[in-house]
Amino acid sequence: MNASVSKEPLDARDRPARLTVGVVGAGRVGPALAASLRLAGHRPVAVSGVSDASRRRAAALLPDVPLVEPAEVLARAELVLLTVPDDVLPTLVEGLAETGAVRPGQLLVHTSGRYGAGVLDPALRAGALPLALHPAMTFTGTGVDVQRLAGCSFGVTAPEELRLAAEALVIEMGGEPEWIAEESRPLYHAALALGANHLVTLVAQSMELLAKAGVAAPDRMLGPLLGAALDNALRSGDAALTGPVARGDAGTVAAHIGELRAHAPQAVAGYIAMARATADRALAHGLLKAELAEDLLVALADQERRPGGSGTGEPR
């Protein structure tokens, strides 16, 4: 992160002028960002959304902002947020550019983590100013998202001449700009997906299993544990590893897999994969003794070869 940008007051020359704002794609992200920009003094003037859920989100977060077609959003707004799914973005940009909807000097911002500014090249050739501003945050589609933007990191990619404008917009939304090189965007996004999206899957699986084990309030049981684990991991990295895999308790790990095979067979493959990854990291950082690691990996391979295991049945 550029500390001088995020912590020092912005010079007036570096602040974007008060802009009219449009949103193409009223999913969970776009309306929240537009609402945050409104708090900074910008003026949302148009939003497009197809589904009923999108229209409800727009009405809740951007009341009195008219719902119009995407081309009309671009016609009305000086700053346009393209908040559509990753796979839709390239086609959308090409279509808007080919139909003449993009205007010279218009700020065109997408929020995809996967893409940098290059995906906006068709709009750039039409005279638009391309910015990639990806909030590293999970969104609910409700007003709480606007509050969560305070202190949220944004992955920022833009032409060098637009860097200050991009970072200023992020700061105005309460975020912290983090510069990501164009070629690093896919790796950056994969890292976030690995940490956040997969975490949701793991937590949901854990709550389901606790409920099957008779725990009345799995969320209440997991909350303090997961909060401490996350805090320890962010502070200490691999040194925070604990549990039977990090200790090399092969028998316990085998018992876990047996229980999962009986009660949640869909979780077996994930458990074995994560156990292997955890063992590798614990071994590399001196937390797991080599002889215990060997026993553990043999046990994992044996469990994987059993009927109903996660692999092909071939020994590793």
How does this model look, in words?
With 316 residues, the chain is an alpha/beta fold. The N terminus and C terminus are likely disordered.
Fold topology:
Blueprint: H1 3-7, E1 20-24, H2 30-39, E2 43-48, H3 52-61, H4 70-76, E3 79-82, H5 89-98, E4 107-110, H6 121-125, E5 129-135, H7 144-148, E6 153-157, H8 163-172, E7 176-179, H9 185-212, H10 218-236, H11 244-247, H12 250-263, H13 268-284, H14 290-305
Parallel strand pairs: 1-2, 1-3, 3-4, 4-5, 6-7
Antiparallel strand pairs: 5-6
Which sheet architecture does the biggest sheet show?
A: 7 strands, mixed
Number of domains: 2
Task: Name the CATH class of the largest domain.
Answer: Alpha Beta
Helix content: 40-55%
**N- to C-terminal distance:** 42 Å
The whole-number mean of residue pLDDT values reads 91
Helix/sheet category: alpha/beta
DSSP strand tally: 7
CATH topology category name of the largest domain: Rossmann fold
Radius of gyration, CA atoms, in whole angstroms? 24 Å
CATH superfamily of the largest domain: NAD(P)-binding Rossmann-like Domain
Do you know the CATH architecture of the largest domain? 3-Layer(aba) Sandwich
Name the strands of the widest sheet in spatial order.
2-1-3-4-5-6-7
Topology as H/E string? HEHEHHEHEHEHEHEHHHHHH
Low-confidence stretches: 1-14, 311-316
Q: Can you count the helices?
A: 14
Spatial shape = elongated
Domain DUF2520: 152-278
Domain Putative oxidoreductase/dehydrogenase Rossmann-like: 14-135
Protein name: Oxidoreductase
Pfam family, one: DUF2520
